[in-house]
UniProtKB/TrEMBL annotation, chains A, B:
Residues noted as binding Mg(2+) in the record, renumbered to the chain: 79, 81, 83
GO molecular function: magnesium ion binding; phosphoribosyl-AMP cyclohydrolase activity; phosphoribosyl-ATP diphosphatase activity; zinc ion binding
Ranges for domain Phosphoribosyl-AMP cyclohydrolase: 32-106
Cofactor: Zn(2+); Mg(2+)
Catalytic activity annotation: 1-(5-phospho-beta-D-ribosyl)-ATP + H2O = 1-(5-phospho-beta-D-ribosyl)-5'-AMP + diphosphate + H(+); 1-(5-phospho-beta-D-ribosyl)-5'-AMP + H2O = 1-(5-phospho-beta-D-ribosyl)-5-[(5-phospho-beta-D-ribosylamino)methylideneamino]imidazole-4-carboxamide
Protein purpose: Catalyzes the hydrolysis of the adenine ring of phosphoribosyl-AMP.
Pathway annotation from the record: Amino-acid biosynthesis; L-histidine biosynthesis; L-histidine from 5-phospho-alpha-D-ribose 1-diphosphate: step 2/9; Amino-acid biosynthesis; L-histidine biosynthesis; L-histidine from 5-phospho-alpha-D-ribose 1-diphosphate: step 3/9
Family, as annotated: In the N-terminal section; belongs to the PRA-CH family.
Record protein name field: Phosphoribosyl-AMP cyclohydrolase
Length: 133, 133
């Protein structure tokens, strides 16, 4: 698979990043949003597994490299202005969030407040053994 | 509805923005990704219709104010680190993209190239009558 072609039409921002949304390929639930630089996008296309760029750690990473919660990419789409991608992914372990929940979007706005709506499926300490995601 | 409370736990970036994803409330298709400032997020919660912040025009806007393609919000969620929201929305007219397509994510990565996958449902000129979205 060409890893150069994929950059055509992609408009990275002033930090060299695009927004990347991971959506469960079956339920279509949005599991997380993160960032990709050119290398992460290329690696994602090349390997078929989601790679992101960590702004805090300033490096590209394979999602699940420590937790095992990898994301196999079934479909990759780019938006009209080229600054965001959506992936339909198969979430290994059923957990995308570093808090041990299925999705990072577990806070729901109801009756004038944010409520935690989803259960923790696995404790953070058990996922990472004390390491940072 | 309290419009102050909604800002609690939301972490706006250095430009005062959070990433906002609009997903069809029934098919769960991701229709678009844009940005919200505090005012847009508050207006969204207050009115029940998606408001965004345009980085190019540097102003808050009601999605659909010119096109009529408003987005009625059925559910609003915030992610673990508070810098992104996902909305389940009802897309008026069935068109979210300024190109006249259902979704902004109409380019699909297949066989080493980006392909346009979705039809134009309405011409841009007919949507905006020559005006900018």
């Amino acid at each position: 698979m060409s890893i150069e072609t994929i950059l055509q039409g992609v408009k990275f921002d002033e930090k060299g990043l695009v927004c990347a949304i991971a959506q469960d390929w079956q339920s279509k639930r949005v599991l997380m949003v993160a960032w990709m630089n050119a290398e992460a996008l290329q690696k994602t296309a090349e390997t078929g597994f989601a790679h992101y760029y960590s702004r805090s750690r300033q490096k590209q990473w394979l999602k699940g490299e420590e937790s095992g919660h990898t994301q196999k990419v079934h479909e990759l789409r780019l938006d009209c202005d080229g600054d965001a991608v959506v992936m339909l992914i198969e979430q290994n372990g059923g957990i995308a969030c570093h808090t041990g929940r299925e999705s990072c979007f577990y806070k729901i706005w109801q009756n004038g407040a944010w409520h935690t709506a989803d259960p923790v499926l696995k404790n953070e300490a058990d996922i990472y053994g004390g390491k940072h995601p």
